[in-house]
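Quiz preparation item.
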């Protein structure tokens, strides 16, 4: 075997060659060799036949130099990257992968799109981001036991329509978004409407978990009377629905995180579908 041929061997192939040579020299049986190589006795006999036929070079992988089964077709990654740069530059890898398949017929794995975007500088992996510390709070055990509610002001329709507010209802047990309603602003009557829509779809929850906005409680420190509840709280009491006001925004973190997801994905979905009004968004 020449020095040039030796360059074709990996360490695993050199180890395989030594063990097969021991079988040839009758220092090992095929069963013992198969056990050391981590293969079946039948596969070991195939390697032995290849060694006798082709010599040491028969131990090299026959797929060397061939295209891998999981390798992308030439130009496919460049095509996907061009589409992402021009249309989905602010999309996350998961949403970009979905839209590439849905709108352009490019079937790529989510992690493949993540790798393409990371190499192009369009995505920063989570491990490279600054660490954030969250105070955990145990979930309620059952769906509908506690619903976190909050309003989110945002340019939902970008420059195609006016800014508005979406009222978000998130189940504490599952983090599932149970109800969305686009309104002009947070008000008692808008929360009445969104709560009615929730009850029509899912039934009455045991409790609603909100912030300390004026819709939910009296914030006037100089108030001399009353039960500290606003009209929304009194109506919920009549319905046997408990209202709880969180002390911090972190305490209702599930609905706060839902805001971030909606501001990212929903805005882009509206853009793709051409939705530019609250009426169309509420359908």
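Solution:
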């Amino acid at each position: 075997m020449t020095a040039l041929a030796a360059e074709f061997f990996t360490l695993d192939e050199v180890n395989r060659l030594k063990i097969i040579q021991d079988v040839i020299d009758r220092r090992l049986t095929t069963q013992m060799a198969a056990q050391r190589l981590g293969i079946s006795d039948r596969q070991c006999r195939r390697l032995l036949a290849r060694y006798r036929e082709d010599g040491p070079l028969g131990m090299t992988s026959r797929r060397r130099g061939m295209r891998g089964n999981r390798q992308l077709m030439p130009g496919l990654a460049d095509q996907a990257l061009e589409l992402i740069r021009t249309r989905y530059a602010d999309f996350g890898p998961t949403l970009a992968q979905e839209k590439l398949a849905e709108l352009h017929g490019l079937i790529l794995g989510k992690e493949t799109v993540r790798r393409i975007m990371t190499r192009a500088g369009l995505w920063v992996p989570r491990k490279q981001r600054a660490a954030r510390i969250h105070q955990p709070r145990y979930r309620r055990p059952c769906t509908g036991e506690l619903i976190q509610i909050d309003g989110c002001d945002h340019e939902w329709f970008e420059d195609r329509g006016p800014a508005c507010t979406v009222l978000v209802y998130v189940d504490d047990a599952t983090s599932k978004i149970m109800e969305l309603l686009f309104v002009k602003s947070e008000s008692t009557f808008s929360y009445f409407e969104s709560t009615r829509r929730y009850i029509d779809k899912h039934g009455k929850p045991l409790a609603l978990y909100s912030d300390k906005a004026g819709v939910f409680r009296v914030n006037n420190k100089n108030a001399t009377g009353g039960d500290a509840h606003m009209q929304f709280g009194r109506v919920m009491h009549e319905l046997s629905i408990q209202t709880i006001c969180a002390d911090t925004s972190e305490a209702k973190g599930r609905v706060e995180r839902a805001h971030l997801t909606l501001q990212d994905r929903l805005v882009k979905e509206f853009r793709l579908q051409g939705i530019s009004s609250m009426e169309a968004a509420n359908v």
